[in-house]
Amino acid sequence: MARRIVALILFALLCFSVNSLIAKELKIGYIISEAVRDQYPEFQSAQRTLDEEKAEWERQYQSKVEEIINMEKDLRDKEFVYSDTRKKEIQSQIGAKRDSLAQLEQELTNRLIQRNAELSGPINTRINEILNRIGVDEGYDFIFDANQGNIVYAKDEYDLTNRLLQELQKD
Question: How much is the pTM?
């Protein structure tokens, strides 16, 4: 009988504890990172810098493409004038230039990724620090990025995008 009473008391305490955990409200917020990128001047400046550098790299790449196109056109135009040996030499040169172009494309892609990280990395670090501070100071359990997550609905009152932009302007 005593065991049943103890078991009943333990069961009641367990139910009370679980009920308390369920009753705790979660505080959830979200940001729209695309809006931050569009509205935060430092992001805009970093994007302009990246776009300018990318345009220069694209000019370099396009110059190499045009060089190959011109070599191919020259080969077609003089196909009947060149000896078979000369045609093979030019075709070999074109092949080497195509290989070089593929390598350049890979290098430029890597350079673009690295440069983007260099320019946006400090900004992203700052944003994460501010979001962590907002989360701790205001008791948020979760802060999501609506652009990165699968949020299909959220009330505007939980949108922290403007709050984040205000904090970014302060620093």
Answer: 0.69
